[in-house]
Amino acid sequence: MTFTYISVVCKKLTVNRKKIVVKLLDGTTLVLFFSVFVHLLTCRSTSSVNMTASAAMVIITAAFACKPFISDSDSRRRLWAVLSALAGGFWIFCFFRYIGLVEWPLAYATDLAGYARLLYFHFVLSITVLTPVLAVAHINGTLKIAFWRNWTKGFFAYLREIVLLLSLVGCWLWALYAVSVTKLHSSGPIAGFIVVCLLKASLTGATEEICYRGVIQPTAIAHFGIPLGLIVQSCLYTAFHIHLGEAFFFSRIGFLAAVLTLGMVFGVVTHFTRGIGWATVAHIAINVVIEWRNLS
User: Would you say 87 and 36 are in contact if contact means Cβ atoms under 8 Å apart?
Assistant: First the structure.
């Protein structure tokens, strides 16, 4: 009896020790990952030494995080596989900077040709980052992105859906009003600016929602739980915008605070509607206003 009790206690201590080790590894890897992520986004240098060091950090972090013997948790391995794919995608984009294919951070555009060039940069960024993330999510079996699933029955459920739909209508009415009262100071045909503005706003809004709320958020929630999972995706989303605030009408701190807040709001609504539809449509409306004011 005593021997059995001691065996049970030792087994529990072993399990608890393993959980503590895994949590410490998760915390350490998160710090390493955010360091790589922020470095790739903020470093203006594209020297061969910088690219080599960044590649080494990405590979080491991915290998360290995704080792099967560290944890038996499938959710943990899936999360770190997706995050490693995200870091790898940004490294590929930085490599394109290194060979002169794209520029970063993005700057102002004073004419239609320059604005179309910024659209091209965003397109390359979206493809290089989103492709490995979607590929890894597909391999993991976690690629289940829906537009809007939560059409449930009941008075309060219908009321919630109506409120969400009305808020989307309000976002677009505000966007159209903001565009109509903002005078365009860039040179070129206004129709061309409208088309490129809508394309750029739609591209960035849709790809960011697919990446952060559609793929990263569910895998983060599956491993960390709802509160921390929402925080992780929102912080990654904000880190991506570190240098973008320089091109907009916000101060950098105000811009990043607004992005962090929006990331949490988009994440919460996406979680409860079980789809990225609301966040995508609202995100595009906000991007239209930002893009148009950036042009002005």
Answer: yes
Low-confidence ranges of the chain (pLDDT < 50): 2-3, 5-6, 8-15, 69, 245-249
DSSP per-residue string spanning 256-279: HHHHHHHHHHHHHHHHHHTSSHHH
Contact 244, 105 (CB under 8 A): yes
CA distance 230 to 84: 18
What are phi and psi for residue 142, nearest 5 degrees?
-105, 5
* Residues whose CB is less than 8 angstroms from the CB of residue 123 and which lie 6 or more positions away in sequence, other chains included: 203
Report the pLDDT value the prediction gives residue 215, as an integer from 0 to 100. 92
Instruction: Say what the pLDDT of residue 9 is.
Output: 41
**pLDDT for 112-128, tens place per residue?**
888 888 889 889 988 99
Cβ atoms of residues 250 and 111 within 8 Å: no
Phi, psi for residue 266 in degrees, rounded to 5: -60, -40
Distance (Å, whole) CA 289 – CA 141: 36
Peptide bond into 189 cis (omega under 30): no
Which pLDDT does position 182 carry in this prediction? 83
- Which SS3 state, helix, strand or coil, does residue 111 take? strand
- Flag whether the pTM goes above 0.90: no
3-state secondary structure of 186: coil
Phi, then psi, of 111 in degrees rounded to 5: -145, 175
